Amino acid sequence: MERKSVKRRQKRSKMPLIIGGAAVILLATGGGIGYWMYQKNQEEKASQQVVKQFTQAIEKQEFDKVETLLSKDTKKMSGYTASEVVKKYQTVFSGISAQSLKVSSVATKKTNDTYQFTYQLQLTTPLGEMAKQSYTGKLVKEKDAYKVQWQPNLIFPEMEKEDKVSYTLNEAVRGEITDRNNNKLAQNARLNQVGVVPSALGEGEEKEKKIQAIAKTFSLSEEEITQALNQSWVQPDYFVPLKILDTRPETIPDGATLQEVTARYYPLKEAASHLIGYVGTITAEDLEKNPELSANGTIGRSGLEMALDKELRGQNGGKISITSKEDKEKNVLQEVEKKDGKTIQLTIDSQVQQLAFDELANDKGANVVTLPKTGELLAVTSSPSFDPNAMTNGISQKAYDAYQNDENLPFISRFATGYAPGSTFKAITAGIGLDSQTLDPGKEVAIDGLKWQKDASWGDYFVTRVTDTSPVNLRSALVNSDNIYMAQETLRMGEKTFRSGLDKFIFGEELNLPIAMTPAQISNEESFQSEILLADTGYGQGELLINPIQQSAMYSVFANKGTLVYPKLLMDTETKTKDGVLKEASVNQIVDDLQAVVSETNGTAHSLSSLGISLAAKTGTAEIKTKQDTKGQENSFLMAFNPETAGYMFVSLLEDRKENDSTTSRSGEILAYLDEHYR
Q: Which residue range or ranges hold the NTF2-like N-terminal transpeptidase domain (predicted)?
């Protein structure tokens, strides 16, 4: 009995030893798995890092960085040495003008004992955005590092040894812009481009003297010429372009060379630059914003060239394909049919445009001429201006800085800038008063003195006028441009009636024009919030902001018996109207009074009567000042049209006018021309 019990104890004592041994074995196995997992993880990271470096080099077109990532047997596997691979990439991608390269969907995967990687590449060429290319490559391990086992299909997926990439480009012709009579406002002209061939300049003092002479002759700086010569692509016998010329010079300094090129040209120059705008070379930033652009070519930078760029630019055509060593086409990567840009015809009359610009005499202002029955814009000008040909074909830094630093702001399109319209707006206020029957045109109102306020609640604020006459009725108020009469009549009709009448016009509306502008506004807030602001608005000041184009649309009611005709600039645009803005009877009364503004000797536009043509007109002066009883900046306005034919309407602005100067005193020549050609 005793022996049996001893044996049982001995058996039980062996169990912990067996279990303990198993624990040791499991621990050792677990450590091996952990190490294997660690190694695997490190290998994955290493392979991913190599692929990341490779694809980033491709994306940034830093092809020289590819060389160190390639396996030693690259020559054997692909037929190219590592340095030849770099050159191949550079040749192909520069040859097709590849830009905006973007790598996506990068992945690595281990198959058997090797890693494969995949990625996609998107790029833009002069033909536009190429379809995404999908790549597959292999990594090989050399010592402790992974390398790319390069093949030609990592340039383009279908490429094989000795294949080439063929590229043909058929550039689209940019559409031209013409006026209503097919005169060109933006054209593709054959012009002379001045440049230099470095080897023809000589060296040392000879080179310096030649550069000085070239700079002086063509209004360039010596620094600009030197910078052009120092560009990375320049070779001794290359032609280095400097500037495109409007006309061929009589003499060409030694060292300079002329070549004929096709370039964008603007015949009206400064007279239409704000309207037509100009073009510039497409940049990498442009391609980032719009992948549909071609890497080469031009894009609109301002004006209609920018607003209508897509229609004008068209689409370059051509083909990029993979060809064999024998130039046999194997695979087409990109093919686009050429589509020339559209020629766009405007309603503008070049002759009227030039006259309207010349009238401003380089002073700050804007002129707008319309056919009020159709809304067609005959002229849209802004002054001072800039030379669009220089902006397109090579402006010196000095010339650009002169524009940029000019306190008269020549880059601003004043025809699209909102202004308080001044007394020309009284015609609209009067029309609303007549329609609402709050204004009796025959009623005479006693007004004494040159300033007036409703009551003491206005504090030290007074409405002022220029002519001290009494009594005053609607006709005399328009003839003498009486602010006090119009302020009183606006208060009489009240804000609700006045705003209701104004809302029939185009306040707050976006106009269907390819010109950037802010909608016309009545006031900063939805209500005037004071009687003073209500009164001031009635005679065209306050917080009114209406640009000259918008004014021409609003004043069209007086040429169309109360119908407002929206402005249009493109000949193929339909005319849009708004009926019943003012009643015909009200319009007839106001037009009769506006004729008196010209015919009566004390009328503010009486000087125009010397033209001997039928005119209805309203002048205006909007004063900008921060304090009562002080002299502020005065903007002069004129609205004029032929009341018998309504063949044209002229709206003019002269900003910050000088003493004894006004839009009226400048407008004789253009009004005579309009009456002769657009009766």
A: 49-163
